[in-house]
Amino acid sequence: MPKLEQWEIKKYWQIFCGLKPVSKKLSKQKLETVFRNSHLDDSTLAEVWKLADIDEDAQLDFEEFCIAMRLIFDLAQILKQRGDNSGSGSSNQVADSDDSDEDYQLSDDFDWYISPTDKKTYESVYDVACDKFGRVKFDSLKDLYKTLNNVPQTDISSAWNLVNPKQSRAVDKDQCMVYLHILNQRSHGRRVPRSVPASLRATFSKETPDYNVDSHQGNIGVRSSSQNSNAFASGYLEKKHGSAQGRVNTQEDDFDETHDENWEQVKLERELKNLTSRLDNIDKEKEQSKSEISMQKYELEQLLKYKQSILAAGQSQSGVDMQTIQDNIESVETQVAQLRDFLKSQKEQLSSLQSQVNAAKS
Fold first, then answer.
1. Total structural domains in the chain?
2. Residue % of the chain over a pLDDT of 70
3. Is residue 360 part of a domain?
4. In terms of residue numbers, what domain contains 296?
5. Is residue 51 part of a domain?
6. What pLDDT is recorded for position 212?
7. Ranges 102-106, 114-118, 208-212: which has the least confidence
8. What is the CATH number of the domain that holds 172?
């Protein structure tokens, strides 16, 4: 499974908190509605639960919940790619706007710029139509479609497909804002575009946009809002709120600006867990290093003892040999002295015999 992006984690955190976890965990009962919204069969959902519930406690903590949501999303996308989406409803059809253009004289000067006034109006519509997870379904804006004059169903479906390239059941805030802007432009006589700028297409497809300021993706110009922009969705908002302006929520769906104490606590707990793990690894390395040093010290001490024993044995053997040699020398000296005495006595006898021989001759 690919690594979760930061925006995905924060989106899952909002859903997780919205389900009101107990002791930072969600039960099967609380997750049943979310799981069944994927339209996956029970056996597949059971396998997803089995894979996500790592500690097998019949509950999902936040990390396990992220795994489950990512698996469900990936499986749903695979099934959609394999299925035949033709004729699956007006929200999934790729309409040809040429048919409707035959009845109306439409201009091609579509403007992607969203003015602050239009933005507030779109946010008001979004606040009314979105569910508790911040998602908007195609049918949740049916009352709005009825207030759009001269906008055929085919153009409404075409606009939906432009902002929903993955054919999801619902879209997020950014997609909804652009969708409402396309409908607004169409209601003022501008033809629904065939495609969206590359930067928006990357956002809708959850890809990485091109942040190069020198690029010309989309060539989105900055123009003033249309004169009748305030009329867009006014009837819809009057019906929902009893006023033309409706309820305006200026907070962007920007997860980077989310300030949630529980979310911060989870991040801090993760950081603490990572630091604790790193400290444990450092301690283990120290203990291992100490053990290796102790072993080396023991081996060197044993080697020293061995060398000392060899040296002592050599000195002992050397002492025995010197004593033996000394004794042998003394024995030889005694024998030499005896031989000298014997030689002297023999010389005296020889001298005596010579004297006797000489005396006999004379």
1. 3
2. 75
3. no
4. 285-352
5. yes
6. 42
7. 208-212
8. 1.10.238.10
